[in-house]
Design brief:
The complex is a heterotrimer of chains A (294), B (500) and C (345). Chain A contains 12 helices and 2 strands. Chain A has 294 residues and is mainly α. In chain A, helix 2 packs antiparallel against helix 11. Chain C has a two-stranded antiparallel sheet with strand order 1-2. In chain C, 60% of the residues are buried. Classes of the chains: A mainly alpha (294), B alpha/beta (500), C mainly alpha (345).
């Protein structure tokens, strides 16, 4: 098995797995840095995946699917902000509710549109090969551009101010609400792209396709101290763990003669998150000062 | 020339009544007064942070419509304010904060270097060295304040308002700031600075306006006669009489503090204090000189060094619950966050933590009802319904609930009441004072912290003054009733009289 | 986080707004599915409540577990904590209960087996709750994140235990529990409703009593609404929060009695899934009031059962989606009701 670690196939596997996490983490960090708690990453991934498959199926082009996925992510973000900022619903609840909605909603749409219970019909895909998949390149570009934009553009500065001290923006005549909306829309589109990768890599949508990736992405955002670049790196770490797990299962690898349980290995990122949170006292890096406040 | 006359009220509370301020251009003008006099409110209105109820504001001859005045317009009119709790976003750098709203860009990317250089240069010129690239939350409070001042001037402030600027500065920094203010005024900027420290006023101000209870009571063309200014701040009337007898010389010591200090920037620096059973002791002083930490330390809500003993028992290291059980009562400074559970009923609030009324586990509803009704009647709490939700009550009635709960504790040995009548209407004030006197008469030692000197003079046998975490003066008995007592206390409060 | 005002008028208004909004959105979804909403709602009511006892029984079956997980979320919220770890707590309870039940000798009398399995379910759930509470109070780790992580971990561990130890002959069902540990069915045309309903109702009464008639409840509510005031009157905020999370875990764990002891009589993969999250809906819709939660659970149970009853007309996923809609509606209705209340007072 050790030999298999150093093949390009394994590296490609890591990249493939990392893409949705990276997009979700980048998108979520934008929303959170601007001051809105983003628990709805799971919903954006799911709706993004479904929309991408649906648009791809309807138009015959995976590229159109991608656009559809990003739009779905942005729309979900719009709904999230509408409830959180205008209706002033609790931001944590809004996130959890949207995730519930997405789980049921994508299944519902599967039934209503395709009369299928679990899988959408096959749609044009980007496929497994990473070279031909624009989303891979997109993820890399985003992982570079998003942190740079947050730090070095006018938009990024206002975004950070909105999450830290909205009053400072009000004093200079900029609307914190509007700033947060823009941040969330871009963040939603990014997360939607992550969802698109899920369905467009395999050519179709399956129910509950996101499998908790949105939550892991949020955990990575928190663990990275709300720094997008580090969050993206952490996601690559998660992808390595997942790829390793798959490899272990395929090659029936053992440690000192004991089989490594396939049910437990994927839990590593979750367990690590808890351990890190316990060690670092939850206070090592503060969230944006105005996170969750209106 | 800046000319202001303002009215401002909150529900149940008139903060400013025709308060006037006139500032000549290119001068340093000090605005002084005790806590609650309205100084901060006044300057916040001028800076566009708070709305006024009615009044006039004229800047440079132009009349400003107050109804639409806000921070953005104030900034455009070159009015800037630097407050104690800074307005900068902590995770951003100084220069990032400075350019917010008008960010210069080159090819779409932020171009901060020119602004940073300009800020640093301006800072050097003014004698206020700053590092424009530093993150604001990594700066000391003094450095952050300097950064805000330099930024305000960089953006072109012609009227610079400083609200208690020296509160967060070390003595050496204070000197630099005062020098800077004078230099700026000479160069044409108008400075209004809010303070209660009269030695600073003497050092830097060209003119002084004194506010008291929301009104302008005096203006001084020059600032040397600090004694006169202090008198104007605290008023010159004779204090009223306290109506209960002083405790005898053999009265036991109810509450004793020895060497009590609280960390955090020297908030409390080694306090020694005694309150005897039956005695009412007042702690005077402007807010922010350690009084809050004193109350919290006695109550056990903040860690402290030194010893605190209650009726001879050492309480140091004991939890709040144990201190309450030992006979301490604590009326917290902020009734809305720390005194009451606003969403609970009057009865619930009256019996919170009072296992002697409710019982250990199952709540004895009959006893609770009886107790609640008794307290409501005793203190005239309105509405007189024990199920009314605390949030719907006026400030005075809310405070009565806290007083009712705390002062009715059995076996009361000592009471620490922090700002017990802040924001409370006159009728309620009288009742609350009555309760405090009754507690003393019943044998408890009562310590009252208040920024209202009148209150302490009317209520207490003995008054001590706190400044910068230390006790700097005391007057008791006959000396407290004589003519110059109020002025002496005022001078201690403002740092014009040396420590006794 | 959630300010539960005690004003009953505002609470009623919030629920009314939420239900109306959900009704509207549900109807819109039915239109999307190509059916007339009025007709579908009518069929749902008719088939679930009036046609045969089975559907009605299923409503009670689902509502029982929801009451318990709803109370679980509610008691944590009372202490100011958001508990979304219900999923993990329920599954922990299910595993513990099924394993204990299966390990008991066949002839164990009910008087021993039933209380034992009940206690084990509660303890398993409480352990999860304790972990979340301790992490929050001692290490400052936000309970939402730790809950989500634990949900996944418990699910994974449960699956592993199932695969390694329990599942028999390629099925995903474990060995049956001892007959003494089974809870009798309630009838209702062969539905799964069982005597654990009694347990759930007992929990409701117990929680109501504790909350409004004891000093524990007084302290709990003070901690959730104003920790500073609680601390000043001598209450230990951290301790109360940990106890609240332990209680929350125990309540959710008790849902296992409904699934394992009352229905499947064995461990099964996926047993109890979804009830933890849905408990959030029950708690919010019931405005964190024990009796309100009963009503909310019945409504949500009705939606779930009704969704199946009209599965030929509209996809059953519609009602699943509606559950998320309800939460969103209630979360938004609360602030609206409060604002409207302020304006009119």
């Amino acid at each position: 098995m050790i030999a298999a670690l150093f093949t390009t196939a394994f590296l490609a596997q890591i990249v493939r797995i990392a893409v949705p996490y990276v997009f979700a983490a980048l998108g979520g960090s934008l929303t959170e840095r601007s001051g809105v708690i983003d628990l709805a990453l799971e919903a954006k991934l799911l709706f993004g995946a479904f929309a991408a498959a649906a648009f791809s199926h309807a138009s015959g082009s995976a590229a159109v699917g991608l656009i559809g996925g990003m739009a779905a992510g942005a729309l979900t973000a719009a709904a999230q902000l509408g409830c959180a900022l205008w209706l002033e619903a609790d931001q944590v609840i809004v996130g959890v509710a949207l995730n519930l909605l997405a789980l049921g909603g994508t299944r519902f749409l599967l039934q209503v549109i395709y009369h299928e219970g679990a899988n959408s019909p096959p749609a044009p895909a980007f496929g497994d090969a990473i070279a031909s998949n624009p989303l891979v390149l997109g993820a890399v570009v985003a992982a570079i551009l998003v942190p740079l934009a947050v730090k070095h553009t006018r938009w990024g500065l206002r975004l950070r101010a909105a999450g830290d001290r909205p009053d400072a923006l009000v004093a200079v005549g900029v609307s914190p609400r509007r700033t947060r909306m823009y941040a969330a829309l871009v963040g939603g589109a990014l997360a939607g792209a992550g969802g698109a990768q899920l369905s467009l890599a395999v050519g179709g949508f399956s129910a509950d396709m996101s499998s908790g990736r949105g939550y892991i992405a949020l955990a990575m955002i928190i663990l990275s101290g709300w720094r997008p670049a580090i969050a993206a790196l952490a996601c690559v770490g998660v992808a390595i763990a997942e790829a390793l797990n798959i490899l272990i299962q395929i090659t029936h690898a053992t440690i000192a003669g004991h089989r490594i349980p396939s049910e437990l290995a994927p839990l590593l990122p979750y367990a690590l998150t808890i351990i890190v949170l316990a060690i670092y006292n939850g206070r090592s890096r503060q969230p944006p000062a105005s996170l969750g406040k209106l | 020339m800046i000319s202001v006359e303002l009215d401002k009220s909150y529900p149940n509370c008139r903060v400013l009544t025709g308060a006037k301020l006139e500032v000549a251009p290119g001068t340093v003008h000090a605005l002084v007064g005790e806590n609650g006099a309205g100084k901060s409110t006044l300057v916040k209105i001028v800076a566009g942070i708070l709305p006024a109820d009615r009044g006039t504001l004229t800047i440079g001859g132009a009349n400003i419509p107050l109804a639409s005045w806000d921070r953005r317009l104030a900034r455009r009119a070159h009015v800037s304010i630097v407050q104690q709790h800074g307005a900068f976003a902590g995770s951003l750098s100084v220069v990032e904060n400075a350019v917010l709203g008008a960010e210069p860009t080159k090819h779409g990317v932020l171009d901060l270097k020119p602004t940073a250089t300009a800020l640093a240069a301006l800072g050097d010129k003014l004698g206020l060295a700053i590092d424009p690239w530093a993150r604001v939350d990594r700066l000391s409070l003094g450095a952050a304040q300097r950064a805000e001042i330099v930024t305000a001037l960089h953006v072109g402030a012609k009227l610079l308002i400083l609200d208690e600027p020296t509160a967060v500065l070390a003595p050496v920094e204070v000197e630099g700031l005062l020098k800077m203010m004078k230099g700026l005024a000479q160069a044409g900027t108008t400075i209004v600075f809010v303070t209660h420290k009269l030695d600073e006023v003497r050092a830097a101000a060209h003119a002084v306006t004194v506010l008291r209870a929301g009104k302008t009571v005096a203006t001084f063309e020059r600032s040397e006669d600090t004694a006169a200014i202090a008198r104007a701040m605290v008023g010159g009337e004779l204090p009223g009489q306290s109506s209960i007898a002083e405790p005898g010389g053999d009265a036991k010591i109810a509450l004793a503090l020895r060497g009590v200090s609280v960390a955090a920037e020297g908030a409390l620096a080694s306090i020694d204090m005694e309150v005897r059973a039956g005695e009412l002791v007042g702690v005077a002083g402007v807010d922010g000189n350690g009084q809050r930490e004193l109350a919290l330390a006695i109550a056990g809500l903040v860690a402290h060094t030194g010893t605190i003993s209650l009726a001879g028992r050492d309480l140091s290291g004991r939890t709040p619950r144990e201190r309450l059980a030992a006979g301490l009562a604590h009326v917290p400074e902020d009734r809305q966050h720390g005194g009451l559970v606003l969403d609970a009923s009057i009865a619930d609030n009256l019996t919170l933590g009072r296992a002697d009324i409710t019982g250990r586990f199952r709540i004895d509803r009959g006893a609770v009802a009886k107790f609640a009704d008794a307290r409501i009647a005793e203190l005239d709490i309105r509405p007189a319904s024990r199920d009314a939700i605390a949030r719907s009550l006026s400030g005075g009635n809310q405070q009565k609930i806290v007083i009712g709960r705390e002062l009715s504790r059995p076996n009361l040995a000592a009471v620490i009441a922090a700002q017990p009548t802040r924001g409370v209407d006159l009728g309620a004030v009288a009742r609350i004072h009555g309760q405090l006197r009754a507690a003393a008469k019943g044998g408890a030692g009562v310590l009252v912290i208040s920024a209202d000197l009148d209150e302490l003079l009317a209520l207490c046998h003995r008054v001590v003054v706190m400044l910068r975490g230390k006790i700097v003066g005391e007057r008791a008995g006959a000396a407290l009733r004589e003519q110059g007592a109020r002025a002496a206390l005022g001078e201690w409060m403002t740092g014009t009289r040396g420590a006794a | 986080m959630i300010a539960s005002s005690r004003d009953p008028n505002r609470e009623a208004l919030a629920v009314a707004i939420a239900l109306l909004a959900s009704l509207a959105i549900g109807s819109a979804l039915m239109l999307v599915a190509g059916k007339a909403p009025g007709h579908v709602w009518w069929l749902m009511v008719q088939r679930t409540l009036f046609t045969d006892a089975y559907s009605l029984g299923q409503v009670f079956y689902k509502a029982t577990a929801l009451v318990l997980t709803g109370l679980s979320v509610s008691i944590a919220l009372d202490a100011g904590l958001f508990n979304i770890g219900g999923e993990g707590m329920v599954i922990a309870g299910v595993v513990a209960c099924a394993v204990t039940g299966a390990a008991l000798p066949q002839g164990t009398p009910s008087i021993i087996a039933i209380p034992l399995c009940i206690v084990v379910s509660a303890v398993a759930g409480a352990a999860i709750g304790a972990l979340i509470g301790v992490m929050r109070v001692w290490r400052g780790a936000h309970e939402v994140i730790t809950s989500i992580m634990l949900n996944a971990i418990v699910a994974g561990v449960a699956l592993w235990i199932g695969n390694e130890l329990l599942f028999q002959n390629g099925t995903t069902t474990g060995p049956p529990i001892a007959p003494g540990a089974e809870l009798p069915q309630l009838g209702f045309g062969g539905s799964s409703a069982n005597l654990s309903v009694v347990l759930a109702l007992a929990a409701v009464v117990a929680l109501w009593w504790l909350r409004s008639r004891t000093t524990w409840g007084q302290a709990l509510l003070a901690v959730g609404r104003d920790p500073a005031a609680a601390r000043a009157t001598g209450i230990s905020v951290g301790r109360v929060q940990i106890y609240a999370m332990i209680a929350a875990g125990a309540l959710a764990g008790l849902a296992a009695t409904n699934f394992v002891m009352g229905h499947k009589h064995a461990f099964e993969e996926g047993l109890g899934r979804g009830v933890g999250f849905l408990g959030i809906s029950a708690a919010l819709l019931g405005r964190m009031n024990p009796f309100g939660i009963v009503a909310a659970s019945l409504l949500l149970g009705f939606l779930s059962s009704g969704g199946l009853a009209v599965a030929q007309e509209v996809p059953k996923e519609l009602t699943e989606m509606l559950q998320g809609v309800v939460v969103l509606a209630v979360a938004s209705a609360g602030p609206i009701a409060r604002r409207y209340g302020k304006a009119s007072s």
